[in-house]
Amino acid sequence: MNKIIVYTHELVPGMRIAETILNEYGAIVVSEGTVLDENIIRKLNNIGVYRLQIFDEKVVEVETKDVFKKKYNEDVNKVKELIWSISNGMDFNNAKVNEVVDSVLNRSEERRDIIGCLNQIRSADEYTYSHSVNVSLLAMLIGKWMKLDDERVRLLVQAGLLHDIGKTKVPFEILNKPGKLTDEEFEEVKKHTVHGYRILEKVPHVHREILAVVLMHHEKEDGSGYPTGLTGEKLNLLTKIITVADIFDAMTSNRVYKGKETPFDVFKFMEEESIGKLSPVVVNVLLNNIASYYIGDKVKLNNGDIGEIVYINPRSVSKPIVKVDNKYIDLLVEKDAKIKEIIP
Predict the structure, then answer these.
(1) 202 and 316 co-located in one domain
(2) C-alpha to C-alpha distance for 54 and 5, rounded to whole angstroms
(3) 92: nearest Cα among 196, 218, 216
(4) pTM
(5) Contact 270, 246 (CB under 8 A)
(6) Which of 14, 17, 110, 182 has CB atoms 3.0–4.6 Å from 62's, for a disulfide?
(7) 140 and 105 Cβ atoms separated by less than 8 Å
(8) Residues 308 and 327: beta-carbon distance below 8 Å
(9) Cα–Cα distance, 240 to 246 (Å, whole number)
(10) Domain containing residue 228: CATH number
């Protein structure tokens, strides 16, 4: 296929890049074959790329962020309707679940938008609904990165949407309590896995692996999870993926009882504190693929400085190199420096 050289100011969303672009630190900002969107074009301008090669082909239509966000909100509202109907004793609406599954799958190539969506500020009151959609989106990406077949990826999306369906049976005042739960309240929350299993086992044609995910997504590799204390060799791959996706989104979300953490805080947790708890294979796939999407992002450090992520250290993705003005800050070396927030 022919390649042509264009200036950056001539780029439009939908063009497909014909070379891999590195920043001054040698980190990949955009890989060859990537379809450009507004966010990628902005990053190319930010790092001073003035011209580049693109494939000489028809420009494909690329959804704007507003369109993506609109579809995302539609999916969240459908999940909200589903959860409310179950909470009020109505039958499980499998058709509505499949509508959201199809919507999520149709966006499988819009990875930057998906990752950006995971980082957006969301109302704590809407957490239950947006969390289900986010886990399904992230689980889909992990499944794609692990090169699972289409049928398995579809099961992952369904499992992500339904993994917390049992919370419809947990008292509202406990789920939305702004302070720390008592031991008794936490025991009530833990019952949501069994509640979810009981709801779905009565629904025709629900895949047995989805039932397993709903029941076991809080189990841990070392047997320290709940409800049964199973160890890693007894957990299926879909469950291990949903567990990692569930934790990632929970930690980066605003909750009624805590504020959100940055993705790099979560990367640090997964690198250091999840050892023995989460599948190392799934964690490594997530960290090795998702972190690079933050190269070029603006961040605020804990000392108030504003900088740009220019390099992700493959040995420690939670500690990137940040450029502040003309100074490079290696968070692996500067132990007191950390990313406080990512600036949209």
Answers:
(1) no
(2) 6
(3) 196
(4) 0.84
(5) no
(6) 14
(7) yes
(8) no
(9) 10
(10) 1.10.3210.10
